[in-house]
Write the structure tokens for this entry.
Amino acid sequence: MKTDLMKRFSSYYQSIKENLSDPRKNHRRIRKLQATTGSILRFMLLFGLCFVILFPTIQQVLMALRAPEDVNNPAVIWIPEQWSLLNIKIAALVLDYQKALFNTFKVSFIVMFLQLASTSLAGYAFSRLRFKGSNILFLLVILTIIIPPQALSLAQYLYFRDLRLIGKEASVYLMSGLGMGIRSGIFIYIFRQFFRGLPKELEESAIVDGANVFRTFWNIMLPNARGAMVVVGLFAFVWQWNDAYYVKIFEISTAEFPLLTMRLINAAERTYQALFYTGALNLIGQNIWENPLFLALISNVAALLMMLPLLIMYVFVQKQFVESIERTGIVG
Amino acid sequence: MKTYHKLQLSYKQQKLVWAVIFLLPWFAGFLLLFMAPLFESFRYSFYHLTPRAGEITKEFIAFENYRYALNEHVLLNTSYRVELISTTTDVVINLPVLLIFSLFIAVLLNMKFKGRALVRAIFFIPVILNSAAVASALGGGEAFAALMEEQGIGQLFNLEFYLLQTGMAEFLITFIVGLIDRIYSILALAGVPILLFLASIQSVPKHLYEAAKIEGATNYEAFWLITLPNVTPHIITVTVYALVDTFLTSSISNIISTELNRQNWGLSSAMAWIYVGTIVVILALLAMIAKGFKIGESHYEN
């Protein structure tokens, strides 16, 4: 009986030993181990970074949903004790939200289209319609990327004042329509790289079919450049949405035509005055608006309100955006 | 045959005509909205400009603005020279970190795993939310940060204390803690570089990887021998972008804006030109290094 057990044990032992010393199986095991540790490490790293990215936003959302009385209630750390939309209401009043949102959306949308038009045309000409000296012209595009906007703003301001465009949204439209908008140089660069990556056969077959240059561009090249269009469109929209610089220089945001960025900066710098003038103070008691933390909270919520539409839109565009990166090889 | 030839020639001419038409908006904008202001601002940098009832009086002072900006300028608790030097050294140190980090993340995001689309979408959120206005609104909450500290939400756990307990060298700890403190801003800066790298990795022909795998190459080898050489031509693009971007979001840029708003126009123009000069010098140095190491040349063409 005992010897039998011993025998069985030793046979087990032998088979395990054989299994472990089999080089092919070992190799497979090592591979598997490497793959698992690799994916665990990757998961930890990406999860951590995603957390770092999402953490402030989640925190702010939860902060915004607190009741104003609870701003420095030490018992509330994450989950609000009393859920309330009052902070959001007040911040929306301060921002003149409805009007400002509509205006910002309109300006960003028009600018996006103008940027797409001017930069895609230029990018196409630089990549597919090359001529003597087009490389030198392209160096000038690089120059427009390098020079900071501050170096130009005074002269631009004076120029626009002569054209009587100061204080009007048309000034930004003119800039982006003529390919000098926010980082247009980079957009031209992206389009050039992209069009260069499209196969020559596309163009040749279009010529054989008798299309002229513009039709080749419009009917064949542009639909194939959807990836670059999505990327450039997204950036043009977002950067215009977030832009505080040109809006400030050209004094576009006025009482009748409020824009989110300027209202937000105003609210952040002078929260109390903003609350006072918009009549938001009547919504809350004195013991609350005398609390500096409450003022800070309002400017935070206002910032959140400005980012929120972008985040919501991004959720919808995100799939196309990520896929377009997949398909493009922008830097082809 | 002859007609075909003629047709092609005319197509070439057509192309030229269309090139002119396509470039016209950009070129008009370039001349009117870029070149003209550029010369003006260059001229302004040698003048002392004072606003007078709807007019601006100019006084020629040669290099005085430049001298003032570099030697005497003081703004609150900082000065142009200090910020220029610190930004430049920051850029020189941070640029390689940024490049390596974004390349690394791009390679990670390019791998196949569950939830990749979600992770990618999250990674570009900082690009979307990267806004000066939002930053100023959030930065206004200094009191807020203090409160959070008090409640212990600001930091989930005290990393520095923990690391000190392990007996690690102090300079290493400051380095790690500094890096982690800045991780959000690094992520925000790295958004577009990751995007560009991701796109360039996607454009590497897939059959190269298949062939390498058949030959028994590991992922690690495939990265060094296939991905990296194929991505190098685009490192230049990313570098230029990152360089310009860090300068644009740096404190020098803020100082120039502040002086501009204070109507010190001549001074701010001079500052902007010093800034441009610095970027050009760094770019030229990088170009020389790149040429020396043959980075940026497509290795298929030679």
